[in-house]
Amino acid sequence: MVYRLLNKERRIYFKEDSEKALSHCAKIIFDFDGVLVHTSQSYRQTIRKIVDHYFLEILGLEGEKGKLATLGDIQKFKDTGIYNNDWNLSYAIITYYLTLLMRGLQENVLQEFKKRFKNIRFSEVQSFVQSLGEVGDFLRRHGINATTLVSMKSDERLGLESFLAQTISENQHPTKSSVEPIVSQAGINELAFVKRLIPYDLEKPDLLKRLFEESYLGKELFSRFYGIPSIFKFSESFLEQEMFIPTRETLEVLRLRFGKFSIYSERPRVQGMYILERDDYNDYFDEEELVFQEDLVEMGVGGERVMLGKPNPTLFIELIEKVKTEGNEVAYVGDGVADALLVENARFEGLSDLLFLGVLCSSEYPNRLLSLYIKHEADAIITDVDDIPYLLSSLGGKI
User: Quick one: fold of 3-39+244-394?
Assistant: First the structure.
């Protein structure tokens, strides 16, 4: 497996074995976040904000903002390939800290804590936030603060590196059992109790999604998109700060060769379409080939709806089979390990003529991501979408 460097300044690489296939590519499918729009100052800042808000504002623990979830921490979660969905990632960080928090309680205090709050249940947001305020009062009286939680991130046994390593090795599901290794190490057997403190349900109202969406959208867009009043009243909208990455010139050039583009993303559809229409980019994309979060669901055993997010290839394969033409390659452009694994898994299921182009621009650690792309045999590695015309023309493709 040999990679050649096409442009050192722009960090454009391609795998030699993929040269012919890249030059014959006939269709492009884009991921959305980190590929078409900048999200490092939106989604990732939202994760940081809601983790802080949960522990520092709702629970009222003493600590410094921005320390519980750094951009570096978030990138480490992303680089596992498991936490592509930012709701899942936020949930994992909060539950991780909740288990550390309980680890800091002496055994007699822990038993008192569980006994006092054994009946805590989510019914609606405002009353539950009040209940969490009582939880915070109890924790503060027993010396628990956010600064202590931050210091435990580097613990050899219970730290973040250990948590993520075990999560990967045991192939944990991010919304179900990803905190079980830490819970068991901490000597806490009641994972269900931990989860009740941060309700998260993909299908029903909960605290996690509500806090995330209100923080990300701001109170005005949240009410507009969801049709209900804001509770947390965040004035700032991170979504409005998101800007398109590829230039209009790049999209024009690529459309001349490939026609309208497809999208495969875990972003909610209403948010994706809002950005495309706001910036007048929607004409570059085929409305029949746009797959968003709401489309990544199928009925499971017993009629339960199951989210088939990345790197599950089931619905990705359906899109590929819909858009590809015989004998021509389809390229998927993604910004992380989950996207590389998505393509790997689709190939394992027998899908041929599929290429992966990995972009580096959204990562806090581009050198590490470059190495991970090579490990997963990306067909090409680029800084961002604006490099695609240069890549293809350098390989002799018509552009």
Answer: Rossmann fold (3.40.50)
